[in-house]
Amino acid sequence: MNIETLSGLEILQGIIQGTLPHPPIATTVPMKFKEVGEGYVIFEATATDAHLNPMGGTHGGFAATVLDSVTGCAVHTRLEAGVAYGTIDLAVKMVRPVPRDQPLIAEGKVINLSRSLGVSEGTLSDKNGKLLALATCTCMIIRK
């Protein structure tokens, strides 16, 4: 399957359906797509001992990486075939410590999409809906 002929939404749907592979970052930072639609995505992510900082807590980079992924993928769902994106700005706010070895829910949604920029927001919450971190993201749209 040639992904250059698929829209962003079709690519992410292919990952969920298993017809396309998960990106390698989803192994380094355990994330899996749970739901995708036009302008939004939902991931499940789990921090492990591999994501601990020197103090024994989950490193902030875990939440930042998950939030970068969901906000970028939300933008990707709105892009036509052959169009790519890249994060140019990510603002993350850590609200609570991120627990490890617990499935967490990350949601991303598009706020605005123009020809050259996509703006999105994302949240990372525990299974009870308690907010752990949030982010806004600006993506550059890369047209060939």
* Overall mean pLDDT: 96
Helix and strand content put the structural class at alpha+beta
Q: Could you give the order of the helices and strands?
A: HHEEHEEEE
Describe the main β-sheet briefly. Answer: 6 strands, antiparallel
Estimate what percentage of residues fall within beta strands: 35-45%
Specify the CATH architecture.
Answer: Roll
N-to-C terminal Cα separation, in Å?
20 Å
Q: Residue share in helices?
A: 10-25%
Strands across the major sheet, in which order? Answer: 1-2-4-5-6-3
The value of Rg in angstroms is 15 Å
CATH class: Alpha Beta
List low-confidence stretches: none
SSE topology:
Blueprint: H1 8-17, H2 25-28, E1 31-37, E2 40-45, H3 60-76, E3 84-94, E4 104-113, E5 117-125, E6 131-142
Antiparallel strand pairs: 1-2, 2-4, 3-6, 4-5, 5-6
Overview of the molecule:
This protein is α+β, with helices and mostly antiparallel strands. The protein has one domain (3-142): Thiol Ester Dehydrase, Chain A (Roll), CATH 3.10.129.10. It is built from three helices and six strands. 31% of the residues are buried.
What's this model, at a glance?
The protein is α+β, with helices and mostly antiparallel strands. It contains three helices and six strands, in the order ααββαββββ. The protein has one domain: Hotdog Thioesterase (Thiol Ester Dehydrase, Chain A, Roll).
How would you describe this structure in keywords?
3 helices, 6-stranded antiparallel beta sheet, 38% strand, 144 residues, Thiol Ester Dehydrase, Chain A, alpha+beta, globular
